[in-house]
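About this split. The held-out portion is used to measure sequence recovery: a designer receives only the structure tokens and must propose an amino acid at every position. Recovery is the fraction of positions where the proposal matches the reference. Here is one held-out target exactly as it appears in the evaluation file.
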């Protein structure tokens, strides 16, 4: 037995001399094994693991206090106490940040943060919360990086003696933009008329005019409803989350890419997207739309036809904002998308009837307002009967509703239930349409009445012409025969 003790003492001395006491992240131990008379002796270890929740969220505004949770698990044999400290601080946001743990529950400056000593068995979990000190706009779009270090040691000793271990987490906290000024985000493009043969295929494109990212969470978009004196602004949709990049775009669509004619992926799909074909006006607010000061931008003035864009029987051309956005309520701030070739990559192949640039910069020459090409081309395509005239109604704008059966025809265009009654409605001529004016069919009864009036007028004209011709012939015969016509 004396020999065994001697050997054990010697082994411990050699172990210490050789540096076999390890202190490493989240794992510390001293070990020695001696065999005597069939027995094995093993020293204890101090070891723990830490799992953490997701990183600190973006501080969108000074009222946001993001937090992160840490859960400790003992791996070794020894119980331990621990504390959480901050090291390696760097970044222009750091002086404006406080941290607190949920044990002490008191905010401290991030640069010098240190939690109290925490007993693992009593508190294996701890939450760390961040807070901005000042809400001044100078603290916008800044960041802070630091190490959050969890140190554990034996309860009966201080942290500088005995066994210890640590776990280190790299952290980054960023601030957003909470002061958004009118014009920082503009409504850049509207497909208010939908796409060919799918009038509800509408989308809204937003543009960030600043050099920094803007969080859109909670932004609201309104629309007009009703007519005349009964027009009313109502909430159309709320953006639940999403970021519009610096000088970038954010596309909000009623349909997904697979259900729409566009060949790009929307940033937000919302079935509440609903744009009027007349009396159009939408507004975007940075928060609650009931507070006027939250208004960021307006599109159109809500009177008459939209400021730009074109809805033909075949062609559907988006309404685009000028490069210098100006006041979106003014017609002069908008132009119609006319770039047939440049827009092809944004639409399903081989769509040649829908024009627009969803999710990217506008391509059309904003000084060009000549729609004659599209009007003439429509007449050619209609004459060739390669496409069905799109007579679908959009929204509550009073347009005629005609359900179409297919997107192409080999002969006559399909008829609606009303037309199947036996009465044929011809496609109205479009050569009288003025540039920038959408083709509008008021309602079916009016079309039928107009056609009836035209038929009556033509019949009257023919009768009058026949009567004039007959009278002329009679007078000529009387002159030749020198006879006086009999009065009836």
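Reference sequence for scoring:
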């Amino acid at each position: 037995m004396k020999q065994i003790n001697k050997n054990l003492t010697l082994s411990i001395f050699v172990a210490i001399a050789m540096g076999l006491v390890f202190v490493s992240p989240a794992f510390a131990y001293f070990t020695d094994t001696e065999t005597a008379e069939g027995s094995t002796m093993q020293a204890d270890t101090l070891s723990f693991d830490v799992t953490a929740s997701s990183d600190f969220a973006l501080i969108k505004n000074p009222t946001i206090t993001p937090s992160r949770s840490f859960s400790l698990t003992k791996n070794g044999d020894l119980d331990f106490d621990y504390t959480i400290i901050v090291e390696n601080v760097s970044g222009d946001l750091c002086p404006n940040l406080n941290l607190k743990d949920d044990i002490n529950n008191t905010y401290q400056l991030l640069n010098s943060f240190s939690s109290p000593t925490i007993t693992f068995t009593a508190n294996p979990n701890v939450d760390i919360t961040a807070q901005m000190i000042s809400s001044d706009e100078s603290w916008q779009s800044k960041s802070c990086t630091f190490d959050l270090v969890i140190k554990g040691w034996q309860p009966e000793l201080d942290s500088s003696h005995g066994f210890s271990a640590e776990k280190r987490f790299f952290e980054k906290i960023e601030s957003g933009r909470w002061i958004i000024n009118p014009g920082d985000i503009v409504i850049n493009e509207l497909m208010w008329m939908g796409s060919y043969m799918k009038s509800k295929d509408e989308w809204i494109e937003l543009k960030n005019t600043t050099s920094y990212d803007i969080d859109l969470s909670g932004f609201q978009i309104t629309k007009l409803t009703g007519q005349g004196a009964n027009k009313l602004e109502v909430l159309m949709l709320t953006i639940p989350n999403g970021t519009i990049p610096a000088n970038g775009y954010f596309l909000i669509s009623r349909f997904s890419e697979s259900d729409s004619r566009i060949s790009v992926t929307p940033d937000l799909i919302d079935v509440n997207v609903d744009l009027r074909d007349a009396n159009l006006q939408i507004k975007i607010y940075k928060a609650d739309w009931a507070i006027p000061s939250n208004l960021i931008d307006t599109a159109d003035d809500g009177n008459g036809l939209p400021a730009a864009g074109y809805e033909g029987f075949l062609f559907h051309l988006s309404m685009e904002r000028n490069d210098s956005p100006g006041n979106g309520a003014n017609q002069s701030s908008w132009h119609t998308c006319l770039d047939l070739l440049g827009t092809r990559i944004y639409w399903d192949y081989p769509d040649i009837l829908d024009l627009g640039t969803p999710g990217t910069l506008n391509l059309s020459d904003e000084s060009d307002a000549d729609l004659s090409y599209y009007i003439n081309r429509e007449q050619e395509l209609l004459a060739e009967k390669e496409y069905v005239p799109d007579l679908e109604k959009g929204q509550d704008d009073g347009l005629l509703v005609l359900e179409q059966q297919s997107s192409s025809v080999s002969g006559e265009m399909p008829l609606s239930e009303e037309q199947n009654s036996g009465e044929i409605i011809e496609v109205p001529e479009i050569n009288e349409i003025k540039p920038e004016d959408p083709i509008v069919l008021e309602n079916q009864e009016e079309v039928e009445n107009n056609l009836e009036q035209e038929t009556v007028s033509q019949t009257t004209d023919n009768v009058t012409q026949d009567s004039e011709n007959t009278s002329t012939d009679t007078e000529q015969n009387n002159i030749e025969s020198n006879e006086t016509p009999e009065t009836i």
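Annotator remark: The chain has a mean pLDDT of 79.
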